[in-house]
């Protein structure tokens, strides 16, 4: 896994909010906003994090989602990969 993606994901999950289960998306999506997949090298315009999905309790890469507003106030949902919470260091 790319270190930059992991660091970005950690920063996003640090701004946690409660996830609401919605069909096709793990964050609240009242306006049927399309989910955008994050790719290395992307530079999303994130002005405000609205919520993040819950990180599964598994050891390995998992997809999570983050809802955010850009600098013009438009809502986006981004899907990205992180390591789940189920890994132990022992």
UniProtKB/TrEMBL annotation:
Gene3D superfamilies: Protein of unknown function DUF2790 (2.30.140.50)
Signal peptide as annotated in the record: 1-21
Record keywords: Isomerase, Signal
GO terms of molecular function: isomerase activity
Listed InterPro entries: DUF2790
Entry protein name: Topoisomerase II
Highest taxon above the source species: Bacteria
């Amino acid at each position: 896994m790319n270190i930059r993606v992991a660091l970005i994901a950690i920063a996003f999950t640090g701004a946690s909010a409660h996830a609401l289960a919605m069909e096709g998306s793990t964050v609240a999506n009242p306006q049927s906003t399309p989910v955008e997949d994050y790719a290395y090298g992307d530079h999303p315009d994130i002005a405000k994090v609205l919520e993040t999905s819950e990180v599964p309790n598994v050891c390995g890469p998992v997809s999570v989602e983050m809802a955010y507003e850009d600098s013009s106030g438009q809502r986006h949902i981004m899907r990205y990969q992180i390591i789940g919470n189920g890994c132990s260091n022992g």
